[in-house]
Amino acid sequence: MLAFMAGTAATAPPAAGEVRVSGDELEWKIETPFLVADFRRNSGTSRSGQLNTILLKDPGVLLTRDRPTSTVHLSPNSATGGRWAGINRWNPPRSFRTRRTSDGFRIEREGEMPGVPGLFVQTAYEFPAHVAAIEVEESVRAEREVQVSLLRLCEWSFAPGPANPFTHVAWEDAKGNLVIRTRENAAEPLPLDIRWQAFLSATKRFGVAAVVERIESGAYPTHGAAALFSGDPHYFYRVLVQAAGGALVTLPAGARYSARYWFYLFRAPDPERGAAAVHEFYLERRRIAMPAVK
Predict the structure, then answer these.
(1) Does domain 65-288 have CATH number 2.70.98?
(2) According to the model, what pLDDT value does residue 176 have?
(3) I need a surface site. Which of 26, 104, 155, 214 has the fewest CB within 10 A?
């Protein structure tokens, strides 16, 4: 049975099957047996309810963007020809709600995309008590015809430069082939339908991966759709629209784009076994999402 605790009185680490929540609205601290997620405001994002940092209890690593004006989770985000903006700039979102689930704690937020009037965004985090992962849902809907130069989902960003803890990138294509590369040799744009993408650390022996259950755009326009590693690389994302040279793509009223995925956190003695662990997690989630017909 799930043990759920709200408030700040208890200071002992959560036991197995327990999720602990403290802090004010949109500035929560959520602790599971595996991680501590910090939603407190920072000088750049203010009251957004977006993930600032994640402490991984084993191996004792703090995942951070290492900037006072950014967050580790950056999506959904979009642009209309100029600089992009994401929902970590909500201050506050139009509405939000939280609830206890059968296995943890869930946060849901919604509102207009910052800087892109006409795009309505819904997003959710769910923190399970029994697995080292965060379930994430993101969706973007055009409430009227909108022109955009950029639209991204599933974007996670970490510290660049010397503070970057990762040594390798990895992904699994739609046919189940695993690819591992050193960070310096990260891939060119990848197909949107890859199953997951990950950062791994050979020195700290851990990794993080965005393991996708579904990404949907229906019959609505995409342009340059791909999965990408960028920066050092120190961030990755899925792009639905990427128009170069100031061009704009018209999204008709009703156009909807969505993603459901797991941000998976894992220990691995080396990158090869780390990639194998993500592959097994993907297969496990697929079995749960699509049980066998009897």
Answers:
(1) yes
(2) 97
(3) 214
